[in-house]
Amino acid sequence: MNDIPARPKRRTGGRLRPLLGGACATLVAASSVVLVNVAHADTTRAAATTLKAAAELSGRYFGAAMGQDRLSDSGFLTIANREFDMMTAVNEMKPDATEPTSGHFTFSAGDAIYNWAVQHGMRVRGHTLAWHGQQPAFWRNLSGSALRSAMIEHINGVMAHYKGKLAYWDVVNEAFAEDGSRRQSNLQATGNDWIEAAFRTARAADPSVKLCYNDYNIENWNYAKTQGVYNMIKDFKARGVPVDCVGFQTHFTGGSSLPSTFQQTLSNFGALGVDVALTEVDVTNAATNQYQGLTQACVNVPRCVGITTWGIRDSDSWRGSENPLLFDRNSNPKPAYAAVLGALNAAPTTEPPTTPPTTPPTTPPTTPPTTAPTTPPPTGQPGGCTATFRMANGWPGGFQGEVTVTNSGSAAVSGWTARLTLAGGQTLGSLWNGNSTGTSGAVSVRNADYNGSLAANASTTFGFTVTGSSNTAPSDVSCTSS
Ligand code: G3I
């Protein structure tokens, strides 16, 4: 496999600066003012003539989905290569495709798509790791801790293969019901924490890829399912569960259509601190106004990173009878194509809040500080460390635990090691967000690469599963910092 191509940089510099005249210049002259979210359309640039080039103007991508069978379809490949810079495998990276029998992973179909995509300058979205649909047959014969372990081992196995290669992973797909409650499934029956267990496992398996929750019928802000997913993401962000993005499938087919609140939904999710993306777009009869509207909703939201259509031509679609894609069966772009292209080209440019002014202040501060600070800055006392255990989920013969490590000192620490003692007969299974030494008795857990640095009073959590005849909590839980 090849390495992942770099993503286009969000356009914030050259094209923007000439437009910062008048009022903005006044802001710059006012000393240390930071430009916050100055958004406007750049009318000076030439319009791009392909979907990907137009999306890249505002640092976004424009993607498509393909099955392995399209690799021998020159008509498809010609358009894909010309117009798209992100690819999703329609079925080839799903659980039944990648682990058809327990512990036996097959990546040839997914790799074929991956290799073609990166060889043509695209990035790849991974779809999907844990889902009630398209499960390996052996999952259907499992339940409880055995199914939970199978899911975790599946995530570890697939993500190890694609480690460092993908831009996004749909870690969990379609886990909510229409009324906003969790969808009843065999995975849900393993415990309500199955989604966060999947995300924690995924983060430990590949810290470099963005981890997404993906679902359909969550585009309307006033819909119960949207609220259910929103509340889960809000809770995950509050508790440090590693979720980076939310995928809105955007199937405006089969009776659905563009809601007027879509931009509000994207914006509200983005405000939680996640990227948002439109991941499986199709629209009944490719209605131009809906394609224009969904594109506009994305480009108006700074955290909307890109749009993917579920196929390229109507003949590629899972709902082909609705002719829902941007290209017809003869590979010709439809009117909706022009509408999408126009909306991408007109995307506002958003100046990130951290960008410093380009012109130094012309007026020095007139009043120097007169009072010396009364409290000296921290002198770097060594950090402290406390560790607390929580039983996240227990079942006869095992449990899932979490340990929260807190820097209780007054200075930052750059690493930590937690220790705990498992009861007799217990064995450590999977562990995420840390690196373990030992699997029974006294076990130590060193921080992972990405969670060793803790500011004073900051915390991080690692998790693990334990098998054994009892679900006795570990003893002697402690930690040291470095
Ligand atoms: O490969 C077999 C083939 O050997 C057999 O002859 C044929 C008979 O029906 O079936 C083929 O498998 C089909 C597979 O697509 C490949 O074409 C399955 O039956 C069919 O169920 C499967 O459908 C996929 C569907 O997910 C299954 O849930 C669609 O291609 C795929 O586009 C669709 O994608 C989903 C996303 O993953 C999640 N969001 C919704 C989206 C649309 O349903």
Task: Set out the fold topology.
Blueprint: H1 22-29, E1 39-41, H2 51-56, E2 61-66, H3 74-83, E3 86-89, H4 95-98, H5 108-119, E4 123-131, H6 144-161, E5 168-173, H7 194-205, E6 210-215, H8 224-239, E7 245-248, E8 251-252, H9 262-270, E9 275-283, H10 288-299, E10 304-309, H11 335-345, E11 348-350, E12 386-395, E13 398-406, E14 416-421, E15 427-432, E16 434-437, E17 442-447, E18 459-467, E19 475-481
Structure commentary:
- This protein is of the alpha/beta class.
- Helix content is 24%, strand content 24%.
- It has eleven helices and 19 strands.
- The chain has helices at 22-29, 51-56, 74-83, 95-98, 108-119, 144-161, 194-205, 224-239, 262-270, 288-299, 335-345, and strands spanning 39-41, 61-66, 86-89, 123-131, 168-173, 210-215, 245-248, 251-252, 275-283, 304-309, 348-350, 386-395, 398-406, 416-421, 427-432, 434-437, 442-447, 459-467, 475-481.
- The strands form four sheets. An eight-stranded parallel beta barrel has the order 2-3-4-5-6-7-9-10, surrounded by five helices. It has a four-stranded antiparallel beta sheet with strand order 12-13-18-15.
- Helix 7 links the parallel strand 5 and strand 6 (210-215).
- Helix 6 (144-161) packs parallel to helix 7 (194-205), helix 9 packs parallel to helix 10 (288-299) and helix 10 (288-299) packs parallel to helix 11.
- The longest helix has 18 residues, at 144-161.
- The chain is globular and about 65 Å long.
- The structure holds ligand G3I.
